[in-house]
Amino acid sequence: MRRLLAATATALSAAALLAFPGHASAAPSPLPDFDFSACPAPPSNADPGTWRCEAFVSQGVLTIADREIPLGEMRLTFSEGEVDGKYAQVFGELRHAPARIRDTFGATLQLKYGGHSDFQSNDERRGELDLYAVLRHPLLPKECTVGTLGAPLHSVVKDDPAVPFEVISQNPKTVKFGVVDAQLALPRTTGCGRLSQVADELLGLPSPSGKNTFKQTTYVQFKPL
């Protein structure tokens, strides 16, 4: 009888593990390849030994009202350190391939750097970045954008509780975290010619602050300069 009970318990345990696969250890996600080729050099008056380059690799999603646009991979680099004992930073590069917008007859959206960034985190936000988005389609002029370099979209990102900060590696230092901007305002399109109204209607623009979200899951690796 004892052998029968033991065998039954073993079988039930195995069945439980199969029924609840969350109990098994999940394989870690592979790290992206980090590219430091666009790291800007520290300024000539930089404090020696304080500067490092940060290479970001993000997967982003932009939601405009009820339309979700997967943005795919975005890459960003900048350098930070001290000058005369005070924090300083130099922007490097933002790279983003055009992302297809579903149900828009082949239109794509590509994010571009808008000329301002501040990656010094504080208690209120993780950082801020000015952007504009190039809207591409065979029927649209190449100047068609959401926001412009002169009047960019201002994104202030906060920590996303759904993707908590995590140290992946200490050598080289690599971290993962999520950020979200739930207050991003999106204006009407600019430079879209005769199809401006069509482009606006397809994207649901303008869309005021509070109706949109910009989310990113980001890996960052650090390199001393």
Concise summary:
Keywords: Signal. This is Secreted protein. The protein is 12% helix and 45% strand.
Give an overview in words.
The protein is mostly beta strands and 225 residues long. It has one domain. The chain is 12% helix and 45% strand. It is built from 2 helices and 12 strands; from the N terminus they run H-E-E-E-E-E-E-E-E-E-E-E-H-E. Strands 1, 2, 3, 4, 5, 6, 7, 8, 9, 10, 11 and 12 form a 12-stranded antiparallel beta sheet that branches. It is globular, with a radius of gyration of 23 Å. The termini are far apart. The N terminus is likely disordered. This is Secreted protein. It comes from Amycolatopsis decaplanina DSM 44594. Keywords: Signal.
Question: Main traits of this protein?
Answer:
12 strands; single chain; 45% strand; disordered N terminus; signal; 12-stranded antiparallel β-sheet; 225 residues; mainly beta; Secreted protein
Topology overview:
Elements: H1 2-19, E1 52-64, E2 67-83, E3 86-96, E4 99-100, E5 108-118, E6 127-136, E7 145-146, E8 153-159, E9 166-170, E10 173-181, E11 189-190, H2 196-203, E12 212-224
Antiparallel strand pairs: 1-2, 1-12, 2-3, 4-5, 5-6, 6-7, 6-8, 7-11, 8-10, 9-10, 10-12
